[in-house]
Amino acid sequence: MSGLARVLSAARTLHAATPGMQAFSPWKCSTTPEDRPSQPMPALDRVKGFNLPGTVATQPLIDAIRAAADFGHWIQTYTEAEVGRNFLDNYGYYELIGPGGHFRSDQMRGYVAYWGPGLFYDWHNHAAEELYVCLGGQARFLAEGRADVILTPGEALYHSAYQPHAMVTEDQPILTFVLWRGPGLADLPRMQA
Ligand code: ZN
User: Fold this and answer.
1) Separation of CA 131 and ligand 1 centre (Å)
2) Cα(16) to centroid of ligand 1, in Å?
3) DSSP helix/strand/coil, 72
4) Quick one: which of 19, 61, 82, 140 has the fewest CB in 10 Å?
């Protein structure tokens, strides 16, 4: 099995073992990889070296993400003017599953996303509904209409359509698997004006 196929398989296993993920979205995704080239990012070595523990359920996906980090088409949708150089040096994600993902789906989107320690991911929103699953590390999540939540390995957190949200990492990085569903599936998140 190729590197990203192993990530897909581990993500599917986690989905099958996590009622909150199943309730959010059924698993609908091709197992045939798209012709999507790898694309590196500054924090690639941090993902490869990610050594904080997951849970029994999340550790296989952490291990697969680390092993296949070189194959991901890593994306940074924000500019230096929006988030600063330090942020860009310490964050990135790739679309494992979705309209533009390594594995095609028009019903769901699944991102692998990493943020290093000491970052503030500023307020943003998007049309699609979202479920963050913390694989390893932790972060504090802020959202309009909800008390702050510290998300730790194995926990999931939901954002509704256009609900403004932000995230803070303190001394630990966070490695996440993020699901999207609903209208706006193919859009990008936008910073608040
Ligand atoms: Zn979001």
Assistant:
1) 8
2) 23
3) coil
4) 19
